Amino acid sequence: MTAQTSADTHFASFKEFYPFYLNEHKDGTCRTLHFIGSWLVLTVIALAVFMASWSLLWFIPLVGYGFAWVGHFFFEKNRPATFKHPLYSLMGDWVMFKDILVGKISLKGE
């Protein structure tokens, strides 16, 4: 299946969505910012648990989306898929994070 190019496209499954998601994250800086944001989300969760400071969890959207959206608006120059496909986009963030960790895809982008 080829990657979809329109954010308005309907996806019947995450499997159909993920190629579109990767196509929206071709820029290496954008991918790197997503990766950093994901690490920071995990760090905030770990700190909240370790310190039993649940108010830290309010920072999750700030660090997660903050880094990702800077990547999209300033480097990728597109609208984040979150606006049209919030659940699949969130899933895509973590699948891409895992794929980068295991070497399936590169931080350098295409």
Provide a descriptive summary of the structure in words.
The structure is a single chain. With 110 residues, this protein is mainly α. It has one domain. It has four helices and no strands. The chain has helices spanning 14-23, 28-51, 59-76, 86-101. Helix 1 crosses helix 4 (86-101) and helix 2 (28-51) packs antiparallel against helix 3 (59-76). The longest helix has 24 residues, at 28-51. The two termini are 18 Å apart. The mean pLDDT is 91. InterPro entries: Mpo1-like. The chain crosses the membrane at residues 32-50, 56-75. Keywords: Membrane, Transmembrane, Transmembrane helix. This is DUF962 domain-containing protein.
